[in-house]
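Tokens in:
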């Protein structure tokens, strides 16, 4: 035994270069070396890989490492090879290899040159590969990402279900199963399906103290993400999206804003995914935008932020994906953008499923939404979900709820009523049924439990579950049961404090424009208007001038972001304004905020294209409205938008239908010679309500199309 300990420590120091083990690593390593089936549950960054890498180096034969991600295999192989002089010490064996490359790998394994062989479950289950592995001297089998074997796991893969049969067919050697995420249900599934009931289990804390968890509800998510990344320059980050299309769109948007990124999803060719992984690891790019469904096989220790653009489908997914952040123990920001439409999408997906799969999906989504809407410590909620108690009430500002605490209130009486009601129902109801029961009782007694509603009751129940006063039994359709601790609470009640989320009124800093620059720009506008013999507002309206004096655009690309400015106006009038702003910024040493400069890819607008083409063909407005099922107001809004973007559109045929030539001339003359501004209200008043708003708007559109574009 002493000799084994010496070999283990020597390998740790001389081969891997570490001075000491982390957590339960040493115990797990000794277990597999001693020939025991072993189950390792360690958080991402906890050092799971070493638990099979070190024994593989010491034991005779080749360790077969079963991993679901080809990209992760390559990363692991590169990592092992970096410690050794011999590149044949580790190989991967999967569909990315050519036939000749596969033969080279086989030869090295059979000759005993390879200590670790990484294979996908799909690969190991094939008959021709079974025949090859039966010829090899195998030290043990490692099942990485073992949660994939469970339907309750966050990334269930049917191929994992066949592994027990496949391994038994190859040889009788010990198995080490490893995962970063395992609830009690998932853990039992793994043990049962791999047939390792006699295994030694080593569980480390799920707590990642360096990670900061935050939920954001933003109207403009893209802008907020770009602002966040620009505030964290030169840091590596991962953004998770729900669909391949969205991943590609977000990546493209980031690149448009000079933030180097690449998309990463299962729809890309294997070669492209490998290149993306290498670019991220070699810091040629800072950001990878990946799909939630496919996951990420990139083992990079210094990822500084993980952003969820879309909702993860479960807390396991969320924990696994945020776990990519700060694996070196350094800074790690985990930002999730919560959108109600994401919940609706998942509900729609789940409604199309059947039987057990549907039930599981619904429960997992409920847990995810509960986590988001929870007003207490997020870390405590995550750890409780994985069966771990967090012995303090908050995580010292390492989640948004603890960093920005809201009003705290005592719900002791309400909790006692909940426990009593649950006991009366013999622990045979779920959360929704319990809430309905209590609210029904409340109606019967107007004085009972004042200020209660469904949301508050849900918060009380969820905190009671987190504090282990109540448990949710997943084996009986999530029925609630009172624990011994809960029964004790009835006899010895104490304050039950919950943070109540109050609507925050955030005072945004009011952006003001530079009055001196406004004067300069108005002088330029006036000069051009005299030269062109048109009113100044035809050149640029006041809101556009004010926006220029607030945003200080110094090139055409930035000028596009100014309200009321399109390509046409830039070409026609932009240059003198841009030159003036450049000079003003330089002379006054103005430090421009980049918050506003969000470049976006021009969207193909089918309605606008249809309207332009219809106007060219002189299609009646009533026909356009009927074909596109829109109102006249929407049609005129779209035409205004077309003209404001700098595109000419000929609507004379419709104006000729509405107004006599003399009426058109009269309105035209008003805007050119009489009007101080382009206000439709002022114009209607000037003509003493002789003309309708629609007529005035269309005449103004004609004027701008003729003169401004």
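Residues out:
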């Amino acid at each position: 035994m002493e000799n084994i300990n010496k070999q283990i420590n020597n390998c740790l120091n001389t081969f891997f270069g570490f001075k000491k083990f982390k957590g339960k690593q040493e115990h797990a390593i000794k277990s597999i070396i001693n020939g025991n089936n072993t189950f390792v549950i360690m958080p991402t960054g906890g050092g799971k890989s070493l638990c099979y890498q070190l024994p593989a180096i010491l034991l005779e034969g080749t360790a077969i490492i079963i991993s679901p991600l080809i990209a992760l295999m390559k990363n692991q192989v590169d990592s092992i090879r970096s410690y050794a002089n011999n590149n044949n010490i580790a190989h991967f064996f999967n569909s990315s290899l050519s036939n000749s490359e596969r033969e080279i790998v086989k030869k090295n394994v059979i000759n005993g040159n390879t200590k670790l062989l990484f294979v996908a479950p799909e690969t190991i289950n094939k008959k021709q590969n079974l025949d090859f592995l039966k010829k090899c001297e195998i030290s043990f089998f490692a099942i990485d990402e073992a949660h994939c074997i469970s339907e309750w796991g966050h990334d269930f893969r049917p191929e994992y279900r066949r592994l027990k049969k496949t391994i038994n067919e190859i040889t009788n050697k010990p198995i080490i199963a490893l995962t970063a995420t395992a609830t009690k249900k998932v853990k039992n599934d793994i043990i049962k399906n791999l047939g390792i009931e006699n295994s030694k289990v080593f569980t480390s804390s799920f707590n990642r103290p360096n990670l900061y968890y935050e939920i954001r509800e933003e109207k403009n998510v893209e802008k907020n993400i770009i602002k966040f990344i620009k505030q964290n320059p030169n840091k590596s980050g991962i953004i998770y999206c729900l669909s391949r299309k969205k991943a590609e769109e977000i990546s493209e948007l980031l690149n448009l804003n000079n933030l180097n990124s690449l998309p990463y999803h299962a729809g890309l060719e294997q070669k492209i995914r490998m290149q993306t992984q290498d670019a991220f690891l070699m810091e040629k790019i800072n950001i990878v935008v990946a799909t939630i469904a496919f996951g990420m096989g990139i083992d990079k220790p210094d990822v500084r932020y993980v952003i969820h653009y879309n909702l993860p489908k479960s807390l396991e997914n969320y924990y696994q994906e945020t776990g990519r952040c700060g694996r070196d123990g350094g800074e790690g920001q985990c930002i999730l953008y919560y959108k109600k439409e994401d919940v609706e999408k998942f509900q729609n997906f789940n409604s199309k499923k059947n039987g057990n799969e549907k039930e599981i999906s619904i429960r997992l989504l409920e847990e995810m939404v509960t986590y988001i809407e929870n007003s207490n410590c997020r870390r405590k909620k995550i750890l409780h979900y994985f069966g771990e108690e967090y012995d303090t009430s908050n995580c010292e500002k390492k989640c948004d709820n603890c960093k920005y605490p809201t009003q705290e209130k005592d719900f002791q009486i309400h909790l006692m009523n909940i426990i009593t009601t649950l006991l009366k129902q013999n622990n045979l109801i779920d959360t929704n049924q319990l809430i309905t029961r209590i609210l029904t009782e409340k109606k019967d007694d107007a004085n009972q439990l004042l200020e209660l509603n469904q949301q508050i009751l849900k918060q009380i129940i969820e905190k009671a579950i987190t504090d282990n006063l109540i448990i949710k039994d997943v084996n009986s359709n999530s029925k609630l049961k009172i624990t011994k601790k809960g029964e004790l609470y009835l006899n010895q009640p104490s304050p039950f404090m919950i943070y109540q989320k109050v609507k925050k009124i955030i005072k945004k800093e009011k952006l003001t424009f530079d009055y001196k620059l406004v004067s300069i720009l108005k002088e330029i506008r006036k000069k051009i208007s005299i030269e062109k013999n048109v009113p100044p507002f035809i050149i640029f309206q006041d809101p556009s001038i004010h926006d220029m004096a607030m945003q200080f655009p110094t090139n055409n690309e930035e000028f596009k972001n100014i309200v009321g400015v399109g390509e046409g106006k830039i070409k026609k009038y932009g240059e003198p304004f841009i030159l003036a702003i450049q000079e003003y910024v330089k002379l006054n040493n103005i430090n421009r905020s980049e918050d506003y400069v969000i470049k976006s890819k021009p969207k193909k607008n089918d309605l606008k294209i249809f309207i332009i083409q219809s106007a060219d063909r002189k299609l009646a407005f009533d026909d356009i409205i009927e074909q596109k099922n829109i109102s006249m107001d929407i049609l005129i809004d779209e035409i205004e938008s077309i003209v404001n973007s700098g595109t000419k559109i000929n609507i004379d045929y419709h104006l000729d239908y509405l107004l006599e030539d003399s009426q058109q001339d009269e309105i035209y003359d008003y805007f050119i010679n009489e009007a101080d501004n382009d206000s439709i209200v002022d114009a209607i008043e000037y003509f003493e309500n002789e003309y309708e708003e629609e007529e005035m708007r269309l005449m103004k559109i004609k004027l701008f199309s003729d003169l401004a574009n």
